[in-house]
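Appendix C. Worked example: ATP synthase F(0) complex subunit e, mitochondrial
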Amino acid sequence: MSSAASPTLKWSFLGAGVFYGFFHNRTLASQAEEKRFQQEWARKEKLIAEAKEKFAKLNAPKGDSGVITDVNDPNFDIDKYINYALKE
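Step 2, the predicted output written as structure tokens:
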């Protein structure tokens, strides 16, 4: 190899490496951003599902007699439940 071609090849490879590194970094950054977006979306879907579940539980229809039999329900009345249980 001639002495004039050696530095030219070195600088060419250096420039190619810099360009490759720049574009590869942009690709990795966009993939990481997409992954963060997907994780945030999944978190929001989970929160929505939990909220729907809690809403359905709180607004569940009462039994045929109108007595709430779920002890964890905030509207649970022990007196009504005891009277209901004694009737059955």
